[in-house]
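Handout, section B. The chain below has 302 residues.
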Amino acid sequence: MKLRSIELALPNAAEAAAFLTDIWGMAPAAVEGDIHYLRGSGSFPYLVALEESAEPYVRSTTFTCTAQRLDQLRRSVTAAGLVAAPVTSTDPGAGHGIIVELAEGELLRFLMDAGEVAPIAGPDLPVKLTHVVFNAADAEATGHLAEDALGFRVSDRTKAMVFVRCNDSHHSTAFARAGFASLNHIAFEMADMDAVMRGIGRLRDQGMAPAWGPGRHGPGANVFAYFIAPFGPVIEFSTAVEKVAEDYRVGAPEDWTWPAGRIDQWGLSDKDNAALREAEQKFRHRRDWQPQPLDALTEDNH
């Protein structure tokens, strides 16, 4: 299974797309109606979809998987009592599968037969999304639900987050102990550390300083730099997230502590907690979707 994309709805989608292509460093993929699709250098047809909307919200977060994995998901989400429905994607790459609503409103799409495209070269294009992190009212419960219903694995727990993986990457998502449910941040995988640093420089040229970073995290060991996008959410340049084996020992909060005055492995980063906290509340979860019965996903759909 792979994390593919995030789909957002927001006012002034065209302006947000212009920032992500002209300044952040993505490439345009398509414009279909009032939806802008943006890609990276890798083989996914898009990484971010931006749909025009009066209010901002997270439309969905999309993973790709095999038919066998989709069948497993269908059974496990039904057994867990989650709200789920069959879905056919009309986004670039298409595909079909199920959409699942977690306990706090997160909508996750799992698609099989989703198409890919030829990779492209470009000046420091993100390669892919490395993770999408959500705020949670109860991060522990959501982490357990991701394991039981989705077959994900918890990699580490800290005082701030529960980190969860869907393959050998340390985390494809995480749930922050925020006390509310929303999008925490979107992380873009860069080719290497130099690409991260050049991205920081590119945004500094526009008068934008990191809200946190640069630094190197503990869990996942990835290099990071977080910015608050002009259109609202927290977005991250990242690289080199740790690959973990099946027998990786799940870390506890006491395993991830720093000396006084430090908040990353290098001890270099500063963090604008107030601004980040405000930005992390901008994109809530959609509550107005109308699911059809999951049993409509019959063997004929495979």
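Note. Residues 296-302 have pLDDT under 50 and may be disordered. Compare this with the example in section A.
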